């Protein structure tokens, strides 16, 4: 990390009011002095930390590129724990790139994706789970995903992992000390102490793992497939939820012949909606392909919204859908509630095992009840962030599962009356797996893969 890096830290896709070009490294302030001309004739190397200065950025020929504000922040109280200079320039794409080129021409190196955050991790300002939370904050699709990511960025997950690891390490250290000095440190009846704390660790890890499904849904959204027979109102529902005409709606059966995907935000929850072809037996080759696709998508969904036309009795097509979704999370929408209900009480009773909501997709009524029903199905009616930590990262989930396996092996070893030195093997494996979550035990290539997913300039 000897070289000083520079990158544009704001959007490079469109113009805006301002753009920020950031530098980090031991020579950041010296490099900035080569291209920054202060209106007060002062050098940035002479100013105090965390101060803002008005001036111009010039190219190598002394031509003014832009009027800017230069922000000087000295190590270690910076994002990277290195000297940092940020140039706030006008938000045009061309002028921002020219400012970056001036800094590179003066000695900075172009930053790799995520390199600023990687330096923050390598310099000990944040751990790996917090670094991963940075990109989750950037990519948050809804309010709940943002709150969860901010919680992890604040170190809530790190604190819990460190707490579990400390409990494990205390026992490993005691056992090793007792083995080295048996005359002064006794292991008599110590196994019960290990078992008590391992039980606590297992409980804590299990609690984290139980949040992983909801955590994934918070971050990525609920994979939702809309199923129903032809003309049940599936496409009308998609349009009502999307607040625009995304799907063609006609009275002609089989209008929707392929899947149509849309991501919507419903009361802070992201739904990855897939509208499908109406389920029915058909001789139309193209439509039959759409029907088979609908069935395939249904098998992979987190949630099935089964749209039932309440103005018509259930038929064999509805029966096929009920058979298809019997083992899935299902929300039945009794659509066309604005029309006379023709569905029989007997048919309604057969749908009672599913959560049902009456809606009119055409008139956009019942959507609030739909939103609440989804929250109840996935988040027990609400999402609380008071003390809850949600596991949103697949890497974290896998490592927690591996740590849990090792902790359970410790318990099995205790039941088999294995010696304490054998127990330390599985204790240390659990300790290392948990350490990989926060970056205590991580290989360089894994860190490189994680930070390569970041945007440039972060």
Short structural summary:
By secondary structure, the protein is an alpha/beta fold.
Shape: flat
Q: Secondary-structure element sequence?
A: EEHEEEEHEHHHHHHEHEEHEHEHEHHHH
How many helices in DSSP terms?
Answer: 16
Question: Based on helices, strands and strand pairing, what is the structural class?
Answer: alpha/beta
Q: So, CATH architecture of the largest domain?
A: 3-Layer(aba) Sandwich
The N- to C-terminal Cα distance equals 16 Å
Radius of gyration (Å): 29 Å
Average predicted local confidence, pLDDT: 85
Say what oligomer this is: single chain
Q: What is the class of the largest domain in the CATH system?
A: Alpha Beta
Q: Strand content of the residues, in percent?
A: 15-25%
Largest sheet: number of strands, sense, barrel closure: 7 strands, mixed
Q: According to CATH, what is the topology of the largest domain?
A: Rossmann fold
| DSSP strand tally | 13
Structural domains: how many = 3
Given as residue ranges, the uncertain stretches (5+ residues, pLDDT < 50) are 247-257
CATH superfamily of the largest domain: P-loop containing nucleotide triphosphate hydrolases
Which percent range fits the helix content? 40-55%
Strand order of the largest sheet: 3-4-5-6-2-1-7
């Amino acid at each position: 990390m000897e070289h000083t890096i520079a990158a544009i830290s704001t959007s490079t896709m469109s113009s805006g009011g301002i753009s920020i070009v950031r530098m980090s490294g031991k020579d950041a302030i010296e490099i900035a002095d080569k291209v920054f001309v202060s209106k007060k004739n002062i050098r940035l190397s002479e100013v105090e930390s965390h101060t803002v200065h008005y001036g111009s950025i010039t190219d190598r020929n002394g031509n003014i590129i832009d009027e800017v504000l230069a922000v000087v922040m000295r190590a270690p109280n910076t994002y990277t724990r290195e000297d940092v200079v940020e140039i706030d320039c006008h938000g045009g794409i061309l002028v921002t790139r020219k400012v970056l080129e001036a800094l590179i021409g003066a000695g900075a190196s172009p930053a790799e994706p995520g390199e600023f955050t990687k330096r923050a991790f390598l310099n000990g300002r944040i751990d790996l789970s917090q670094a991963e939370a940075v990109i989750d904050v950037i990519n948050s699709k809804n309010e709940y995903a943002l709150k969860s990511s901010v919680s992890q960025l604040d170190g809530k997950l790190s604190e819990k992992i460190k707490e579990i690891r400390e409990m494990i390490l205390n026992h490993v250290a005691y056992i090793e000390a007792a083995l080295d000095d048996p005359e002064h440190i006794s292991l008599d009846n110590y196994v019960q102490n290990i078992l008590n704390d391992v039980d606590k660790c297992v409980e804590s890890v299990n609690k984290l793992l139980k949040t992983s499904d909801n955590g994934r849904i918070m971050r990525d959204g609920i994979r939702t497939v809309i199923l129903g027979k032809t003309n049940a109102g599936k496409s009308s529902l998609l349009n009502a939820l999307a607040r625009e005409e995304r799907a063609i709606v006609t009275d002609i059966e089989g209008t929707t012949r392929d899947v149509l995907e849309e991501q919507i935000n419903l009361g802070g929850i992201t739904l990855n909606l897939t509208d499908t072809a109406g389920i029915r037996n058909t001789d139309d080759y193209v439509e039959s392909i759409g029907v088979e696709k609908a069935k395939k998508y249904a098998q992979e969904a987190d949630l099935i919204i089964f749209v039932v036309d309440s103005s018509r009795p259930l038929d064999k097509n509805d029966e096929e859908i009920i058979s298809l979704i019997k083992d899935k999370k299902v929300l039945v929408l009794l659509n066309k509630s604005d029309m006379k209900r023709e569905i029989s009480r007997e048919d309604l009773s057969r749908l009672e095992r599913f959560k049902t909501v009456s809606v009119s997709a055409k008139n956009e009524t019942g959507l609030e009840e739909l939103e609440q029903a989804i929250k109840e199905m996935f988040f027990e009616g609400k999402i609380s962030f008071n003390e809850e930590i949600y596991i949103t990262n697949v890497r974290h989930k896998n490592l927690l599962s591996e740590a849990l396996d090792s902790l359970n092996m410790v318990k099995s070893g205790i039941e088999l009356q294995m010696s304490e030195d054998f127990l330390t093997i599985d204790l240390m494996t659990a300790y290392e797996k948990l350490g990989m979550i926060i970056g205590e035990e991580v290989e360089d290539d894994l860190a490189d893969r994680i930070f390569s997913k970041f945007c440039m300039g972060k």
